[in-house]
Write a sequence for this structure.
């Protein structure tokens, strides 16, 4: 491979690759070294010590910070970014009797993992055609490396206080992916941090999950909470509101995102009825129906259970009277304790002290402790 590189004009190849990336719909491309991400390693260790990890991360910190462990002969990393929309055309209204939930912007359109993997695969084929014995490995979001750390080093953008990469052209509304290769591309120049003294994202976080600039307690983050499969702690339920997957608050308030709305990729355009769905029909979907309706979006990866639980919370948030029969039905017949327990809470939000007349008899037959606890909490609160 070294002999090939002696003959290969790296700079010329790099320029060709950049031009090709534009042709295939990559909005930004940058190049990074494969040096160990030493500062990131220290932060990750501290994050774990504080108990701030979500549990979705690669457990081996060394793999998260050492590109050379992931590809023998690794010489550089290609980082890419694709901009996604921040606004929906003709969004349906949420109104009494027809309440709607909302998927975060990162779950609008086709699953971004698939979109970026498609672009990375094209880059792989381009390099394979140009360079004998080239090797590479690609990843999007679920890989070992931190997409944000790579993008920051590659000059895609700077790492904002909201833990997002912020680009000059597209704000933080970008998807990221990377390709480690044995080709020694010339590294790009990182972008200087432009957040300054601004702390709007920190102040606006609904659950105070942003505990400091660039530091997130993932277990308190609504984006994480909406993806869990357990009962959501009661102190976070009202703060979740009608979000059924993810949270955009820290991006919406960011001054660098003001006026940013990119519609560069047809596959990223949201179907309004999918991105902002009616809540009551969500409760009745079978697994097959859920996959048929939502299977192509990123927010479906955890299955229907968390989405349906979040829909129940949203109905409680709206105090939607039309939902009472459906909630009683869930409490009476649904086999999932998390759904039954959450429905008890939501019903309590809607009917208050009258909850006993709706489900008192049902609770007399309930055996699950967490469901009974939810009922006890509702009735106790009303007595107080």
């Amino acid at each position: 491979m070294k002999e090939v590189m002696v003959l290969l004009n790296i700079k010329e190849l790099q320029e060709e690759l950049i031009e090709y990336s534009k042709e295939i719909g990559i909005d930004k491309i940058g190049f990074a070294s494969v040096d160990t991400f030493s500062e990131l390693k220290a932060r990750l260790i501290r994050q774990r010590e504080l108990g701030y990890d979500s549990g979705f991360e690669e457990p081996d910190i060394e793999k998260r910070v050492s590109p050379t462990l992931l590809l023998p002969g690794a010489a550089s990393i290609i980082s890419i970014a694709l901009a996604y929309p921040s606004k929906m055309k003709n969004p349906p209204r949420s109104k009494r009797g027809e309440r709607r939930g909302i998927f975060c912007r990162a779950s609008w359109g086709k699953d971004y993992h698939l979109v970026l993997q498609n672009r990375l695969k094209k880059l792989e084929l381009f390099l394979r055609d140009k360079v004998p014995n080239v090797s590479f490995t690609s990843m999007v979001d679920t890989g070992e490396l931190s997409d944000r750390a790579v993008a920051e080093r590659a000059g895609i953008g700077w790492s904002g206080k909201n833990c997002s990469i912020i680009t000059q052209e597209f704000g933080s509304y970008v998807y990221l992916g990377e390709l480690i290769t044995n080709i020694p591309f010339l590294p790009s120049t990182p972008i200087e941090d432009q957040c300054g003294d601004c702390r709007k994202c920190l102040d606006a976080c609904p659950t105070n999950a942003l505990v400091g600039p660039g530091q997130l307690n993932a277990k308190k983050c609504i984006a994480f909470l909406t993806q869990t499969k357990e009962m959501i702690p009661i102190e976070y339920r009202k703060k979740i509101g009608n979000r059924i997957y993810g949270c955009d608050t820290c991006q919406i308030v960011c001054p660098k995102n003001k006026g940013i709305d990119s519609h560069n990729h047809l596959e990223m355009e949201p179907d309004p009825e999918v991105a902002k769905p009616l809540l009551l029909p969500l409760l009745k979907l079978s697994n097959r129906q859920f996959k048929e309706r939502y299977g192509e979006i990123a927010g479906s990866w955890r299955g229907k259970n968390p989405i349906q639980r979040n829909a129940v919370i949203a109905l409680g948030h709206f105090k939607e009277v039309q939902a009472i029969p459906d909630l009683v039905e869930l409490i009476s017949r649904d086999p999932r304790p998390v759904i039954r327990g959450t429905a008890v809470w939501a019903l309590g939000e809607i009917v208050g002290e009258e909850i006993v007349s709706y489900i008192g008899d049902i609770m007399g037959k309930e055996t699950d402790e967490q469901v009974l606890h939810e009922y006890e909490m509702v009735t106790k609160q009303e007595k107080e």
Q: What stands out?
A: The beta strands are 28-32, 76-83, 102-103, 136-139, 158-159, 165-166, 174-181, 210-212, 215-216, 243-245. The longest strand covers residues 76-83.
